[in-house]
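Example A, followed by Example B.
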Amino acid sequence: MRPKMLLLSAALMMATSASIAANNDALVYQEPSQEIKELVDVKLAPYTLIDDKRENMLLIYRDSYKSIADLSIKEMRLAGLRINPVTNIGSRVTYFNEVKIQPVGKSKIKTVSGLPNNPRLTNFSWSPNQKYMAMTHTTETGVELWVVDIKKAKARRLTDATLNANMGNPIDWLQDSSGFIVKMLPENRKPLINTEQAVPVGPTISVSDGKKAQNRTYQDLLKNKNDEFNFEQLASSSLKRVTLRGKVTDWAEPGMYGSITFSPDGNYVLVAEYDRPFSYLVPYDRFPMTSTVYTKRGKIVTDIEKVPLIEDLPKGFMATREGKRSIQWRDDKPATLTFVEALDGGDPAKEVAFRDKVSQLPAPFDGKPSLLIKTQNRYADIIWGDDNNAIAVDYWWNTRNTKEYLFNPSDTSQKPITIVDRNYQDRYSDPGNIVTKRNQYGRSVMDIDNGQVYLLGDGYSKDGQFPFLDKFDLKSQKSERLYRSEYTDRIEDLRDFDVDTKQLLVRIESSSDYPNYYFRKLGKDKLQQLTDFENPFKSIQDVQKEVITYKRDDGLDLTGTLYLPTDYQEGKKYPMILWAYPREYKDKSSAGQNTQNPNEFTYPFWGSPIYWVKKGYVVLDDAAFPIVGEGDEEPNDTFRTQLVANAKAAIDAVDKRGLIDRNRVAVGGHSYGAFMVANLLSHSDLFAAGIARSGAYNRTLTPFGFQSEERSYWEAPEVYYTMSPFMHADKMKTPLLIVHGDSDNNSGTYPMQSERYFNALKGLGATARLVMLPKESHGYRAKESIMHLLWEQDQWLEKYVKNKPAK
């Protein structure tokens, strides 16, 4: 048996700063060539928020990227949160800076007046009557509450900069739309501790009491007592009632409040409050938490559940805690709580007939809960309808199975009917999503029309994608297709259906036409256009693009989206970039399905390889890289073999078309895709160079599972060893560009992963370059970072791929 971990020399394990500095020949941010740059610096179309009555559209605009100055503002990383302690809102929040209103079906667009100068808006929330849109504005000193009167297209400020948005959206509408319950900074908040300057008063101690606590490798956790103190100060809020006129009154005493949700009738409020003891092993959402029901006036009614600190859970992705969880209001009743409890003790290893049960407890919440339904798999959701109809959904990761149960919530003596029982990775059999409507309480429930409901589906099939609208009879459980999109040159995404008017809300796009919204009346061909957003990437709107299909050596069907260079000439052979991300499956049938559409709008976002069609490259994007493990075999048991087979099949398929010089092919990927790249370069000779961004390369640093691997290192040491590129750094013979944000917060992808891997490669004489992007997280946000990233990638590809010397 191979050793569990390589023993590296001290030279390989030393700090990387010196080697990085010696190779850092770009001391300032660089910009890519003009061909690429003109696709980056564009004005984006707005996000569209349409009210349920389809009367008004709110158009909200933002800049494409933040600046590096934005990311350099002081940030505190505590218990899984990243907080700006000055403004009291998440330090990585996306802000919008312009708001417009367009009446549905009208061309006139009104700019909302009254907004602050240089607005930084987020936390948009419709009022229950949808006459107003609430939002927050972040000033230099804090967060304010603002509201837009939709009819008047006018915004006004309701509070000073005293909101506390550190734990998420701080505003919750009252059910009558007269105001809000708002999280505000407590008056008695204590000054924060400067942890960089504070003198320690003792060591930090963690204790294991013999219970297994097999947690993932979370980042941004609390580390010491000073962190605990700062987290409590930043997480604590006073709950206030704020009227639409800006009157502020007390509602509840200070606490570390999480979610706040009103009952459908508005008479009660379910409040989640976190408490000590804190943990250095898990983020805040696993700290002790109490769910309490209040009256709408702020008087405590009763505690529903007290959850202890959750550091230890049974092994497995389907493990859960004991006690009440998923505590929610029933959408079709005035004030009835529902909650879920595990019937297997939360342990997926136990063999039981039913995994979970769902119960309900109506107001005044002093009776005995009554059973609604038991689920065979782990509970996922309930879609409420009326007194006699509801649909429960469950799933089980290990088998990729999901079930949907039609049941009568008023008569639990009736046995639930299983109406869906399928592999949720099987996209061809997806029945679609049930159409909902707003009921008298403003909640979304199934739109039941004479005992029938409607479903909107993506419509993936072996022949292509054809979205559909079905009618489903709740009594007979039979379906009838009412509409099937027949476009072959564009995508018609069915977003909603109005049962009364028989009108679909659709979004249509093509590879060159930016997505826009339309109304489609059933039985009529004519569309009513609602928006008219232009393509901001016109220089590549005519790029040749298609989804190609090909087979792996074992006969598995694969796909990829192929782009030809903008200067394509028939007969000429080009360099190629292959971009991919591995995905695990438990059956070959699902793994071989085609869910790509060549009519999808060509959108060169910051992480895309599509830019290089303008630099003379063929691009195979989103190449299928399935990793299949059927029956008792786990996908990762043959991970490397399948990776190489996927890559070879992709290159062979494009090469057979006479498009590429297969000696000039690069491979790239982000996150788990970066892990893929390093493995491919170490265990094949298919590529001229690679680009690996924000990856993890040593799986012994994620010993309690990673991605879709739930076995621990001690259960499958050979798998961890075989899959880790770090363990095989001596096999790297291909130039590799490694990029990582030095503030990565993703589980397992510590910046150290790239630093240590690069140091190993350098020590062993491989050709590699490490680029650490300051202030960037797992995805990159600053314009300066994006421009420099594209420059680095372009330089690397030009040197080691396009201009690679012939053999």
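Example B, a separate protein, is given below in the same form.
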Amino acid sequence: MLTGNQIRKEFIEFFKKKNHKHFESASLIPDDPSLLLTVAGMVPFKPYFLGQKEAPYPRITTYQKSIRTNDLENVGRTARHHTFFEMLGNFSFGDYFKEEAIVWSWEFVTEVLGLDKDKLWVSVFTTDDEAEQIWIEKCNFPKERIVRLGEDENWWAAGPTGSCGPCSEIHVDLGPAYGGDENSKLGDEGTDNRFIEIWNLVFTEWNRMEDGSLQPLPKKNIDTGAGLERVTAMVQGKPNNFETDLLFPLVEEAGRLTGAKYGEDKEKDFSLKVITDHSRAVTFLINDGVVPSNEGRGYVLRRILRRAVRHGRLLGQSELFLYKMVDKVVEIMNEAYPDLNDNLEHIKKVVKIEEEKFSRTLDQGIQLVNQEIEKVKSEGGKKLSGEITFKLYDTYGFPYELTEEICEEKGVEVLREEFEAKMEEQKEKARSAREVVMEKGQDSFIEEFYDKYGTTKFVGYETLKETAKLLSIREGKDGKTLMIFDATPFYGESGGQAADTGVISGNGFEGKVVDVQKQKGIFTHTVEVIKGEAKEGAEYLLEVDEMNRVATAKNHTATHLLHKALREVLGAHVQQAGSLVNGQRLRFDFNHYEAMTAEEIEKVENLVNEKIAESLCVTVRDMSMDEAKKEGAMALFGDKYGDIVRVVKVDDFSIELCGGTHIDNIAKIGLFKIESESGVAAGVRRIEAVTGLGAYELVKRMERTLKEIAKTVKADEANVVERVEKMTETLRENSKEIESLKAKITNYEAGSLNDAAEEINGVKVVIKTFKDKTAEELRQMVDSLKDKLGSCVVVLASGEDKAIFAVGVTKDLIGKAKAGNLVKEAAQIAGGNGGGRPDFAQAGGKDASKIEEAVAKVRETLKTLL
């Protein structure tokens, strides 16, 4: 019986024998701004399906790590739902089509996997006679086990318009024990858990037009996907994915860490499966550079991680445990994804930090539940609304089951129906927001140009001047002109490097190149016309601005040094998340879970400058991807697919795949200086830096600033730090003295208010307004008056622009008047809101002019309460 790892290997080897090129799994962070995460095996090839790029090979095969969270609530409940999963796939870009896709899938499923032919069923699209015929004639598949299904099941489309086509799916019949009877067929009601889909073959052959009509695509494509977890379950005879060798060792590890045993209790099994699935998702997301946050990918990670921790609590585990699951995940998955080992400690550290944070959140949640219960009871109620339980669950991540348990102990009923209604509302929102994997096609002009002329010949690595023929000229935006030549020395914006600038001249024409964009290998020059008129078919001289090119090259090479230095100082988990390089500066974004310390920044800057001082040579070579890997080249997804890759090596310090322009010796950079380090997104940091003359100018500005500070504090530059420290200490001492005096004044004023106490129905009440008191000063006065008067109600207010209210009620009187209610009443009159404890509460209001009216209203209220 094949293991999960063997199935993965066998799939790749099978299609390599069918002349497919094997590409490694792409990152879970897709090279596509329209997608949050890689949700399917075809996502990395989206540009090829859309015609944005020419596929480097006509046949490709992969196993692709993927994440989906649209059915999160089903993970652990069903046999086959997962957040993290692997998709086996084979793809054809205008090469083979239906017959090969069908015949090869049948061959692999029956001959390599050895699945029982008599248990296999096939679905085809309603009108797809061709696919059915291939199954019957080429695979000898029985017609009675072929089912025709409609658009909902067996039609794939990019959207309302664009690429689309029929599908054919292979299913395994688990038998009547899982639904239906001896006569049931695929697609019959009540057989969803019986007929298990293991492979979907998509035949992309049509282009749906605006009017709904279908036009044949010029190139037909094949896109297939087989879920490794499902396939493994069928091969190993397991009706449940979690019982395969890919997942069950994790189930056992989760049981060991939480003290629960699989197979004894359904709810415990549910929790163990959640922990198992989520530990894989968490490990792979962090490995690919995602860190927990409250937005985007970081929120997906945080939600999954916290769900796993909650289920650990439900199993009775209050200690940190999830970070320990990472070791087992890496042990199982390391064969297919060896980079996991390099990042093991980083992954565990991030999980542990988040787990610790959430453990505190859980403790806070218990306090919040108790507060809500007390509030319900104080108002004479016995039911906790679904709105509150959902808020605790959704906002604070507090498990519903724990809320229910605490409420039962306190004699309060939880309205589960209301909670579930809120959950369903959230699910509906999630369903409506599911991502579309594909989108409408590319610019028709570029497609037509490509079909007619092919790509532009780029000669910018070898020369900065080139005479070339103008193939296309058209009007651009803002009065500029768009020009395409058969060749160009101008670098087109890509890989974070800005486009070259320069001039185009000849035949009485002169224009300034302000931008160059590259699309499908075609370089479009944006030109400001200085004089004359250019004509298609004529030749022109294209000249790149050499100073700008060299300055840009220095900054680009510096980003390679910076990338390597960051990995040396911070760890191997650091990966480039974006960059911008031009002639003035460089910007480098990278994955890291916390702000760099001043010491770390200094270490990175020093390391880069040390290497610059060593005058290391930069070499650029074209080689195969396999050769580049052997050399140890670092690659980013988006650059790595191609037969021949460009490798930039800085002696023995740095080696990366890169299509940008570089200097030949890093000594030419001169000086590297970091200007700033900041956060730009959850788990993404940004360094901005300058080199050469720009770095020198930065140092001069810093020098001038230092001189100005020295002059201001009346010190020499040599001892300016000592002088500033002394001044800071003096200010600190003065501040403490001022605070002490303020406290004394506040106590004195509070004492003077004793005489201002009035009596309302025999109760001492102090009501006073001020103009210049802080919230803290009002609180101190309230506490002081309560201590001195013993039994009283204190209502104080202050403010010139905004209103501040503080109300105190001694504990013997909170049965009659509650501070939280009184302060809320006052704040609402002043355009605010608030509340608090029965014995003390503070609130604010927008309109300070309403202070007197507000306290007067509270006085009237007290007359009715006391």
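On Example B: The two ends are 82 Å apart (CA to CA).
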